[in-house]
Each structure stands twice: as structure tokens, then as C-alpha cells.
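Before a colleague's protein record goes any further, I have to sign it off. What it holds is a sequence and that sequence's fold in C-alpha cell form. Would you go through it and say whether the fold makes sense for this chain? The record follows directly below this note.
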Amino acid sequence: PDGWPTEDFGVVVITGGSGIEGTYKLSCVGRARKISAVASGGVSTANLHYDAATNTTTADIIATKQAAQMFIAISGTDHGVKDLKIIRPGCTADELFNPTFIKALEPFSVLRTMDLTSTNNNPQVTWEDRAKPSDILQSSAKGACWEYIIDLANQTGKDLWINVPDQADDAYIK
């Protein structure tokens, strides 16, 4: 219901870039018997581990200096996995936002969330329709969830310029 795959799948992590080298930490809820880099020169995986007690799979994704893109295949699952996280080198799983992104926001006093929440052409009507933290994407037609937007404002100490979908009912707005 939140968009997480119910079978083996692949994910595009980074494309067309440079400077992506380092060891990325992957984790997900559910068992994956194989994590592999596909069509991603200079990228490999290591240290695949499944913890049955927590039902969590972890692995390292290693990108060398030659890596320009990262496509990851997750296979051998028992009906898919969820809560997939791939943490950049130098970041921790506790950080919701990349520190470089947070630093880039320093000059601003207000954060306008119109694009982040996909306000234009957004299909949401009721509060229940909104994006949720448990959704697989925070970049769908629903946009990002309000919980993450509030976390961003709190973490940066910035005011929010909130835009709501034009079809939102009164209860959603309240």
C-alpha cells in the first residue's frame, strides 16, 4: 500500500555524476539474498548480512573513483523488502537530510515548499491522501510528506511558506 515492491527489484541511486566514490551503507527490512550493482562500472557490493532477529538486511555498496552511476538490484527476497535506506559516505542513518544540503540552506530565512510538496497538479483532497513517511517515494505526485518538511524547518530553524494542494478540503488545511 505504501509503494514498496512485493518482489525482487532494482533501484536507480545516482546517475550521470562524478565524485560519488566511497562506501554507502544499505539497509532494508526483509530478507534479500543478493544485493548487486548492475550497469554500474566501478561499483561493487560487499558484507551482505541478514539479521533474522530484526528481519533486516544490510550491505556495503562501494563506489570507486571511476563510478559515474549506481544501479542496485535487490533479489532473493521473500516477497520484497521495505524501508530501504542507502546512506552516503560521511552521513549517518540518524540524519534525515544530508549535511551539505542543510548548509546550503543557511542563507535563507524562509523555505518555500511548493515544489517539494508538488503543490501544482497534486491529487490530494483529504489528509489521508497525503504523502506519508512510510511511502516509498517522497517525489511522487503527492510530493514529500509534511512530517519531513516540518523536520527540515525545525532542523534549520527556518520559517515555512506552506502551499497546499488546490483540491485539499477544509479538514486537510486545518
